[in-house]
Input
Amino acid sequence: MIEYKLIRSDKRKKTISLIINRKGEIIVRAPIKTSMDEIEDLLKAKKRWIEKRLSIKQTFTNNKKEFVTGENFLYLGKEYTLEFVDNHNKKGITLKNGRFLISKEDKENAKRLFIEWYKKAAKELILDRLNFYKRQLGFIPSGMKITGALSRYGSCSGKNNLSFSWRLIMAPLNIIDYVIIHEICHIKEKNHGPHFWGLVESIIPDYKQRRKWLKDHRHTLSLE
Output
């Protein structure tokens, strides 16, 4: 038996919606006259989807960072071990010999320091890759910024301003390139129609594999 919260509304005429919120709660919204049999049929039909989504959310919970010595953190798809050290001569984080080094004095600020380090690294790398691809393709963005988006790793506005999440810097370079190319292609094609995907495929023929990697590994690109 799947536990869920049912919200009925007289504003809904026909459709039933099903979501899983950030707390892992299953929410069903239905028209006020919808029978319980219809709702149960929907839950049965969506059982595999529900189980998969709940599994992903549980993985997110299990991967929550504690910011302790020996814990691994991703950078460009590789894991580096966190170590708190004495007499660290720099404020913030240093990546050296396969380790993220932070002064023991800054232990309580470790999460903030990681975010600052990731933001800086993301801005430098993504800007460099963006400049490369815009020269190659001739698609010129109006601007670029780094955001704190949790799962929307890139976006292109109607005015061709590109945005990228700093969390993307945890992914391998070929995945970062996929997101950059995806967004830069939106300068020419604003939707996700056949012409858009054809353009993306002409640049990165294996874009489907890269997109699948991002979907399957999104839970690893987080400090939450």
